[in-house]
Amino acid sequence: MDLASLIDWANRNEGVLQALALLGGLLAVATSLVRRRSEMPSRRGAGTEGAEALPLRFAGFELDVARSELRRGGEMVELEPKPFALLSYLVDHRDRVVSKAELLDAIWPDVVVGDASLARALAQLRAALGDD
Fold first, then answer.
1. Hey, which of 44, 118, 123, 131 would disulfide with 25, CB 3.0 to 4.6 Å?
2. Which residue stretches of 1-132 are H helix?
3. Closest CA to 20 of 113, 117, 118, 108
């Protein structure tokens, strides 16, 4: 999807522009992931309960969801559970725009949280990725 199509789609869908503004620099990472999707290792046993995912590599990082690890150049990057869950969710859904409401539901299921919780997790994730 090119940028013009993305903007057109966002204009037709309530709340998506707010989510894009909140995601800020993460949109660039997600775009990079979409472009590199064919270069990324496929998930072994995708859709199979209990199957382990292979580590995903992007922009000098390695994300190992099965081990809850994020590495940069082989070095472990410290990341709290919610920002890690946010990154994992965005990577898993890199083929489409994810709304703010969907992120809140996915990262904080059965908990009522506000925009500040998402903003805090995004800020921590951006700092960990070096996108301050």
1. 131
2. 3-12, 16-23, 26-35, 81-92, 100-107, 115-129
3. 118
pLDDT reported for residue 4: 62
- The alpha carbon dihedral of 93, 59, 40, 77 has a sign of negative
Looking at residue 93, what DSSP letter applies? T
Rounded CA separation 65/69 (Å): 6
**Contact (CB, 8 A) for 94 and 34:** yes
Kindly provide the b/e burial profile for residues 67-95, where b requires at least 16 CB atoms within 10 angstroms of the residue's own CB: eeebbeeeeebebeebbbbbbbebbeebe
**Long-range residue pairs from 69-78, CB within 8 A, at least 24 positions apart, any chain:** 70/128, 72/130, 77/128, 78/128
- Structure confidence by residue, pLDDT tens digits, 78-104: 989 999 999 999 988 989 999 999 999
